[in-house]
Amino acid sequence: MDKAQQDAMKKAAGIEAAKLIQDGMIAGLGTGSTVKFLVDELGRRVQEEGLQFTGVTTSRRTQEQAESFGIKIVDIDDVDHIDVTIDGADEVDKNFNGIKGGGAALLWEKIVATNSNKIVWIVDESKVVDTIGKFPLPVEVIPFGAGQVVKKFEAKGYKPVLRLDADGKEVRTDENNFVVDLHLERIERPAELAEDLINTVGVVEHGLFLNMVDTVIVGNPDGPRILTNSNR
Which amino acids does the record list as binding substrate (predicted)? Predict the structure, then answer.
């Protein structure tokens, strides 16, 4: 699949998801390449159709994009609920377990998600897998002692790699933390792994989002496909 095809599928999923936002809603807006298409479409609806809603974003870059369209963005602590959060995912399996954090926004994404009445992910079909883990699992760690956390992960066979930018500098999250990516290939027992990671001192959050999503909108060549999580 080339990038143009992939982008077309992401865009279709984003436009489909934008239909879920109605006047007066408080909506969580995620981060990433697919969400960018969603925000573009919501911006169009605000400007052309007079849609009025309030957004809570999972990253500063989504906030800047949304505000450029005149979408009202507020702080998560200034709302008493979030009706629906629409976000991307790096991988999602048939049990609705996902990996997020490819864009280094996993902590804010998880905070917004856990405060939402409904969670929707928009992905292109390449993100739907049988078993998660091929995509490296992001773990947000505080900078102090990050090297020790990496050593612990190495000893456990998690194949950790500290994420660096193009200049070879540590990638920083919006909270100024580091990201360690675990190259696991297959995650057979995600719940156990999640427990182990969150109990590791120095880890702030991990990118396993397990059975949290209600609906996944998958961009396909022949139009968006909707997967509904019956366990929610």
Answer: 31-34, 87-90, 100-103, 127
